[in-house]
Amino acid sequence: MVISFLLLVGLLHKYAFGPLIKAIDERRAKIQSDFDKAERELVEASKLREEYVTEQTRVRKEAHDIMANATKIAEEKAQEIVTAARQEADNLRDRARAEIEREKEKAIDELRTYTVNISILAAQKAIEKNIDPSTQKKLVDEAIKEVGRLPC
């Protein structure tokens, strides 16, 4: 009976346990291979995530830099426009002042000419009438009053 048992154990070992152990070893190797593959893919995914985060950070910084630069350029352009407008306003004001000054000088010259003409006219009348000094003074005063009524 012992011999039969040992013979049975030997046959089971050779024909049953051998293929079973081989199948278990193959399954263990497949699981280990899948585990190693999953670990490599996890490392690769982690690496890709880090690259993604790095790239995302770079893109955000670049976008921020572009916005900052655009804002700076816009502020500079706005300042240039304001400066140009102020310069143009100053030029317009200077031209207006010069024009006013020319018109003022022209009016003063016309007033002088008119005053001289009235004075000459008063003198002519005084000479033509050959009048006494009090009448002469009266005529000169009237001429001065006429000049005083002129708009300046």
TrEMBL record:
<feature type="coiled-coil region">
    <location>
        <begin position="21"/>
        <end position="117"/>
    </location>
</feature>
<comment type="subunit">
    <text>F-type ATPases have 2 components, F(1) - the catalytic core - and F(0) - the membrane proton channel. F(1) has five subunits: alpha(3), beta(3), gamma(1), delta(1), epsilon(1). F(0) has three main subunits: a(1), b(2) and c(10-14). The alpha and beta chains form an alternating ring which encloses part of the gamma chain. F(1) is attached to F(0) by a central stalk formed by the gamma and epsilon chains, while a peripheral stalk is formed by the delta and b chains.</text>
</comment>
<dbReference type="InterPro" id="IPR005864">
    <property type="entry name" value="ATP_synth_F0_bsu_bac"/>
</dbReference>
<dbReference type="GO" id="GO:0005886">
    <property type="term" value="C:plasma membrane"/>
</dbReference>
<dbReference type="GO" id="GO:0046933">
    <property type="term" value="F:proton-transporting ATP synthase activity, rotational mechanism"/>
</dbReference>
<dbReference type="InterPro" id="IPR050059">
    <property type="entry name" value="ATP_synthase_B_chain"/>
</dbReference>
<comment type="similarity">
    <text>Belongs to the ATPase B chain family.</text>
</comment>
<keyword id="KW-0472">Membrane</keyword>
<dbReference type="InterPro" id="IPR002146">
    <property type="entry name" value="ATP_synth_b/b'su_bac/chlpt"/>
</dbReference>
<dbReference type="GO" id="GO:0046961">
    <property type="term" value="F:proton-transporting ATPase activity, rotational mechanism"/>
</dbReference>
<dbReference type="GO" id="GO:0045259">
    <property type="term" value="C:proton-transporting ATP synthase complex"/>
</dbReference>
<keyword id="KW-0066">ATP synthesis</keyword>
<keyword id="KW-0813">Transport</keyword>
<dbReference type="Pfam" id="PF00430">
    <property type="entry name" value="ATP-synt_B"/>
</dbReference>
<keyword id="KW-0138">CF(0)</keyword>
<keyword id="KW-0812">Transmembrane</keyword>
<comment type="function">
    <text>F(1)F(0) ATP synthase produces ATP from ADP in the presence of a proton or sodium gradient. F-type ATPases consist of two structural domains, F(1) containing the extramembraneous catalytic core and F(0) containing the membrane proton channel, linked together by a central stalk and a peripheral stalk. During catalysis, ATP synthesis in the catalytic domain of F(1) is coupled via a rotary mechanism of the central stalk subunits to proton translocation.</text>
</comment>
<protein>
    <recommendedName>
        <fullName>ATP synthase subunit b</fullName>
    </recommendedName>
</protein>
<keyword id="KW-0406">Ion transport</keyword>
<dbReference type="GO" id="GO:0012505">
    <property type="term" value="C:endomembrane system"/>
</dbReference>
<dbReference type="InterPro" id="IPR028987">
    <property type="entry name" value="ATP_synth_B-like_membr_sf"/>
</dbReference>
<keyword id="KW-0375">Hydrogen ion transport</keyword>
<keyword id="KW-0175">Coiled coil</keyword>
<keyword id="KW-1003">Cell membrane</keyword>
<comment type="function">
    <text>Component of the F(0) channel, it forms part of the peripheral stalk, linking F(1) to F(0).</text>
</comment>
<keyword id="KW-1133">Transmembrane helix</keyword>
